[in-house]
Write a structure and sequence with these properties.
Layout lengths: L5 E11 L5 H6 L1 E11 L2 H6 L8 H13 L6 H13 L4 E9 L13 E7 L5 E9 L4 H14 L3 E6 L3 E3 L2 E2 L2 E2 L6 E10 L3 H14 L14 E7 L4 E3 L2 E3 L8 H10 L4 E2 L3 E2 H9 L2
Antiparallel strand pairs: 1-2, 2-3, 3-4, 5-10, 5-11, 6-10, 7-10, 8-9, 12-13, 14-15
Bound molecules: adenosine-5'-triphosphate (ATP) and 2-amino-6-hydroxymethyl-7,8-dihydro-3H-pteridin-4-one.
The site of adenosine-5'-triphosphate has 13 residues, from strand 11 and strand 13.
EC number: 4.1.2.25, 2.7.6.3
Function: Catalyzes the conversion of 7,8-dihydroneopterin to 6-hydroxymethyl-7,8-dihydropterin.
InterPro entries: Dihydroneopterin_aldolase (IPR006156), FolB_dom (IPR006157), GTP-CH-I_C/QueF (IPR043133), Hppk (IPR000550), Hppk_sf (IPR035907)
Length: 281
């Protein structure tokens, strides 16, 4: 049975230092949070026990703690953080979080600015491997920031992050030592997202790193490839799974093997063996 019951908690005020501008980080400001939890309250009503529901006082304190914690740039990120806090209570099926920033630095008169996110507990979770590549700018920094973005992505849990492997750029005509070297790595994790939705988010993250999609196999600030998701086989114009070139790329297989020594590439075999075969030439 999916519950239609709700707990509403509105106007929770807390002080935080979230924002893009240095002044916001320095001075801080007030944030106001509204929450709507969807959960089944029938057992609480039948037993009259607070154990059978979400204690609204504790919830409010957890929201304040989430606002007061380390600053982030966006109220979108803060709203996601608060949604995660609300969904920690097993009873909660879904949550709508609104974060208001009434003192935001907007240079015209305005009443309020807010974001609202709706998140629900999801069903199946599949293992996933994402490859990261970067050969422009500060590769170590880009790698760390890309991993941080993946760790914050709703619907993705990052379990293992490989080290950053420095590799020779592979072009259409083979390895090219004259091109900037790549930093490559992988993250191994779990996702509740559909592969199309996950890839869409990966492409969005790439875009925020300023990648210009000029040339296939060309130099790039950040490349995120979905390597495998569970044992799915997909062959669509915008999405091929497993990634069609993963088995022939040491720059994917080597960090993957480091992150998961038992890894298997569906349809191709053990990553250990694939890498050994590549290295044997
Ligand atoms: N498993 C996948 N992971 C990432 N992108 C994929 C995948 N399958 C298909 N694509 C599509 O490929 C496009 C990626 O092209 P991109 O410019 O990143 O290629 P590339 O990185 O130059 O080459 P390669 O795909 O060989 O790494 C995306 O727009 C995406 O729709
Ligand atoms: N070493 C290395 N070479 C590449 C890489 C990469 O990630 N590492 N990515 C490419 C296109 O995705 C093309 N060539």
């Amino acid at each position: 049975m999916s519950a239609a019951d709700r707990i509403l908690l509105t106007g929770v005020r807390a002080f935080g230092r979230h924002g893009v501008l240095p002044e916001e980080r320095a001075a801080g400001q007030e944030f106001v949070v509204d929450l709507e939890l969807t959960l089944d309250l029938a057992v609480a009503a039948a037993t009259d026990r607070v154990l059978a529901t979400v204690h609204y006082g504790e919830l409010a304190e957890a929201v304040v703690a989430a606002v007061e914690r380390d600053p982030v740039d966006l109220i979108e990120t803060l709203a996601q953080r608060i949604a995660d806090v609300a969904l920690e209570a097993e009873l909660v099926d879904a949550v709508v979080v609104t974060v208001h920033k009434p003192s935001a630095p907007i240079p015209v008169p305005f009443a309020d600015v807010a974001v609202r996110v709706e998140r629900r507990r999801t069903g199946t979770v599949e293992p996933v491997v994402i490859a990261i590549g970067t050969n422009l700018g500060d590769r170590a920094e880009t790698f760390a920031e890309a991993v941080a973005a993946l760790q914050r992505l709703p619907g993705l849990t990052v379990d293992v992050v490989s080290s950053l492997h420095e590799t020779v750029a592979v072009t259409r005509s083979g390895p090219d030592p004259d091109r900037p070297r790549y930093g490559n790595g992988v993250v191994v994790g779990r996702t509740s997202l559909a592969p199309e939705a996950l890839l869409h988010r990966l492409l969005l993250i790439e875009r925020t790193f300023g990648r210009v999609r000029a040339e296939r196999w060309g130099d790039r600030t950040l490349d995120l490839d979905l390597i495998v998701q569970g044992d799915r086989r997909i062959d669509e114009p915008g999405l091929v799974l497993p990634h069609p070139r993963a088995h022939e790329r040491a720059f994917v297989l080597s960090p993957w093997l480091e992150a998961d020594p038992d890894a298997v590439l569906p349809g191709r075999g053990r990553v250990r063996h694939l890498l050994a075969a590549l290295e044997a030439g």
